[in-house]
Amino acid sequence: MKPSLEQLIADFTQLIGPVPAVPAVSPPIAADAAGSPAAPTPPPPPAHPIQKVDHAQRGYDFDATVAPAQVVASSELLDRHGFALDTMTGVDWIAQGEMEVVYDFFHPTANIRAVVRTRVPRQTPELPTIAHVFPGANWHERETHDFLGIRFLGHPNLTPLLLPEDATFHPLRKDYQP
Could you tell me the pTM of the whole model? Predict the structure, then answer.
């Protein structure tokens, strides 16, 4: 089945539920004690957690931000539409006290690329695994665990993939000191 982008947006809207209101005014930029602007912060979340995106500008067509508890259901929805997992990556938003996992999917015949994002607290970085939906996620989750310390609950073998077996550090965390 070739999905349409409109159908994908409708299905994700049904999955995510009502969209919370977003404040109209952006918070002021923080400053340090000397009055200098603080370190750059990520852009504010989109006004809507589901967005159709210009592929020519961003490299993908669809972007959804979901709650951690919706990661598996989102993956199952994409699987039902015939998508495949391309890659996963993690981001340490240290100033916000959060970790983000970004899942990239593609459809082999519909020429649609989709991105699903979720954030977890940095102090308890845990998400459910999607390895039972997309078996290729196994190694992506192990790598993300190695480098950022994000735990994928229910993963069949979350042992180090690229780091030494006795590694007790996560080198892509922004507070990592070698």
Answer: 0.81
